[in-house]
Amino acid sequence: MTTAAAAAPVTWQAFKSDYKPIWCPGCGDYSVLASVAKAFAMLELRPENVAVVSGIGCSSRIPAYTSCYGFHGVHGRALAAGTGLKVARPELTVLVAGGDGDGYSIGGNHFLHACRRNVDLTYVVMDNHVYGMTKGQPSPTTEPDWNSKLSPGGTGLRTFHPLVIALAAGANFVARAFSGDPNDTAQILAEAIRTPGFSFVEILSPCVTFRPEQRDWKNQVRPAPVAPTDDPARAARRIMTDDGFNIGVLYKGERKPYPPPIGKATKRLSDLEADFTI
Amino acid sequence: MRKRKTTNARKAGGRRTIGTPARRKRTATNKPSSTGRADFLARAWTMEVEAAERYASFADAMDQHNNRDVAELFRKLARIEQLHADQLLEESLSRRTPALPPEGLRWGGGREGPETAAPGELHYRMQPYHALQIALACEKNANKFFSEFASRAADAKVRKAAREMAAEEAEHVRLIEDWLKRTPPPDKDWAHDPDPPLVSD
After folding, report:
1. Cα–Cα distance measured from residue A144 to residue A130, given in angstroms and rounded to the nearest whole number
2. Distance from the CA of A271 to the CA of which of A18, A89, A225, B51 falls in 20 to 30 A?
3. What ipTM is given for this predicted complex?
4. φ and ψ at residue A175, rounded to 5 degrees
5. Average pLDDT, chain B
6. Which of B57, B58, B69 to mutate to test the interface with A (most CBs of A within 10 A)?
7. Superfamily of domain A23-275
């Protein structure tokens, strides 16, 4: 391959693998996949320099549908794997992806500490307010009065508020996107990836099978009426008082990312083993 | 979508249907571009390409769920839109993919082109009639877009080209309406699945 050929930009389609998604027709995750691929292409990345890491759930199937390196990990532990990968291989662009159940319930604690550590990676949550893969149980972002066979009368539980929690825990970039506008989502994702530190993008991604009423989200979303702020308190107030449908970059801070390890290890493995010999 | 002079269906003596676009002169894109002309070409081309990509994605989704008739229809729509995009380039002076702004194109309230089908419109048991309804809505949106573009354009050649595109989109609306008349409408229980995924209804 010539240098010129090697430097040629990769089209967004080249970031998609030959595996066809098996999500339900109409699922928002199709568009998120397109948005992720478009964001990579926009940033002129190459598949061999990108890793997509996920947990478990419908949306967590996404690494297989990209041509990047991928890791389909353990439920709720995508951020742990992604953090380790980024710290070990800081030259890679790491995108961690999953759903609201995987990220906010099973992986809730990892979410908090990933925000706090501020490692330079992007976390994408495809939020549909339900566990789709396991047939429709309420998730942490399900409305308390969502009535279903699996939650008669609703759970009555207060919903998890991921954007504010991310802010409070130290995420450096917080945005909300909507899968129904994949080009806009691609722009937001590109900005998230470009911004150093932990970038959190919550994407409203309807589950047309278990939450068919979410098809109406397209009529409810709107661009956030204010510019992004670098003041987390102001951002938190805005997010706490909106109705969950303001789309755009909501907070962009300047925290320095967690530094990757510099230099060589001070001890060899054999030395460490010797230290632990009983 | 733009019309072709002779479709296979017409050659075979059938009714006129949607087909590949006509070879025709497009004044605005055959001249060196001013900003308005470049913007027009970029928008017209992007509309067609993104519409084609969306239909292709729909076809893949329906294929995965063994809804072959609808998959084939979406594939046909994707091919038609891509042909139109290719023809727009052929008729432009540069014959190159138009340069798009790095922040992407804006279309009214968002970044989705007016001819691109909404991603959430599918249902795994949908029928060709539903797919045509989606296409009809897209063509109507495209017609409205070009009509409004023509009314705003300061450049006379851009205005003329936009009017031509609007007229073509109006023609496609009529063609799809004809196609719908020939397509059996779904039964009222078309979405009924004897083995449904839902346990939460």
Report:
1. 12
2. A89
3. 0.87
4. -145, 160
5. 80
6. B57
7. Thiamin diphosphate (ThDP)-binding fold, Pyr/PP domains (3.40.50.970)
